[in-house]
Amino acid sequence: SHIVEQWHQRRRSDQQRILTLAKQRRIHQIHVEHEWRDREKYINGERGPWWNEKINKERHWKLSDRENIHRMRCKLIENNDFNKHDEASRLRDNLGIDSIDESRQSLLEESLKNKSLLIQQESLRGNSIDEQEFLAVANETQSLLLEEKEKM
């Protein structure tokens, strides 16, 4: 019993030590990622040596938490954690989540592929469809695809 209690106590202390180390590693990793992001912004920023107009990411800003003596937040800082809330707006507009739209789009693409395959098989069998009709059907399928993508 005495040996078992010591073993349990040792096990608890080891688990606590392991959890503490994991937490420290995670905090350190987050800190390193922030440092790398800051360095990348410095190098690829507007005044940096590797700035390229063509590869210009959209930047989002927010008010700084610092206040002056008049309790005014006067400085804009870059918002690294910006979220467009696309999923929430899609749910608000009753459009569903992206995964549902992707499944719907994949079903539409499969049906269009099947339709084009049927047309090709009919043309090979001898139910000759002239090229104008084939092009008209191809254009129709492309327009349907574009309409579905615009709806999404």
In terms of structural class, how would the helical and strand content be classed?
A: mainly alpha
Order of helical and strand elements: HEEHHH
Overall residue-averaged pLDDT value: 81
Shape: extended
Query: How many individual β-strands?
Result: 2
**Count, helices:** 4
Low-confidence stretches: none
What spatial order of strands do you see in the largest sheet?
Answer: 1-2
The first-to-last residue Cα distance is: 66 Å
What's the domain count? 2
Helix content estimate? 55-70%
Q: Mind summarizing the main beta sheet?
A: 2 strands, antiparallel
What is the radius of gyration? 29 Å
* Proportion of residues in β-strands: under 5%
Kindly describe this structure.
- The protein has 152 residues and is mainly alpha-helical.
- The chain folds into two domains: 2-57; 86-151.
- 65% of the residues lie in helices and 4% in strands.
- The chain contains four helices and two strands.
- It has a two-stranded antiparallel ribbon.
- The longest helix has 43 residues, at 2-44.
- The model has no long low-confidence stretch (mean pLDDT 81).
Could you list some keywords that capture this structure?
single chain, mainly alpha, 4 helices, extended
SSE arrangement:
Elements: H1 2-44, E1 61-63, E2 76-78, H2 86-92, H3 98-125, H4 131-151
What's this model, at a glance?
This protein is mostly helical and 152 residues long.
